[in-house]
């Protein structure tokens, strides 16, 4: 009787062992490591420590009585009285050595704000000079009346639009002496004078009267390997286009009429094949 009982117990134990082993081995989550708890450190394995009590682990904490904490008295900090802002520190700009001259030219040009020609930097002067510098990409546009700001203001204020020989249609005018460009419709100015950069030494832009004979919204320059946006050609591979470098670099172009992006775009919108071009004067040093 004892022998059959022993055999039955051995068989039952074997079945449980096989079933349990099979269920654990082929669990895809176990193989992939999903939802598996991180292995306990040596200290944790030795002490059985855990942040929370497990299902078979009683918490060792005994509901301690809450301790009363007396908050530290808060100190009242008096806020300083607001300081009064004077006209000298509200949006003020550094004063340049050409302050009075720039004031005079900006007052003549108009459109940049109220200017008092007294050689003293004011809030109004600061705002007007900054606006002027941003319009013509004079860097940095900090409101300081320096030599470059004076030069650009002088050239624009000195441009005489009546010197351009125009026809009955649209004419693009280039003053090579003052390095300015504007557009006329008959005797009416349809684009105010703006700054430009024409040909440098050995690449001088020739004076004369021409016509736009080719246009491309974005032309590729083979010899210089650069894109020329708003390209309008009029003679000898020369034409109007957006400047590809800082316009106020004094070196000059290879004969083309370099313009600020917004100005090149405006001139493009006014032109077409057949538009008259009149260049006059002489750029110094060419």
UniProtKB/TrEMBL annotation:
PROSITE patterns in alphabetical order: LD_TPASE, PROKAR_LIPOPROTEIN
Xref: CDD domains: YkuD_like
GO biological process annotation, one example: regulation of cell shape
InterPro entries assigned to the protein according to its UniProt record, in alphabetical order: LD-transpeptidase (IPR050979), LD_TPept_cat_dom (IPR005490), Transpep_catalytic_dom (IPR038063)
Biased composition (Low complexity): 66-86
Protein's pathway: Cell wall biogenesis; peptidoglycan biosynthesis
Limits of the L,D-TPase catalytic domain: 170-280
Active site (UniProt): 241, 256
GO cellular component: extracellular region
Range of residues in the leader sequence: 1-21
Top-level taxon of origin: Bacteria
Keyword annotations of the record: Cell shape, Cell wall biogenesis/degradation, Peptidoglycan synthesis, Signal, Transferase
Gene3D superfamilies: L,D-transpeptidase catalytic domain-like (2.40.440.10)
Disordered: region residues: 25-99
One MF term in the entry's GO annotations: transferase activity
Name used for this protein in its record: L,D-TPase catalytic domain-containing protein
Organism whose genome encodes this protein: Micromonospora polyrhachis
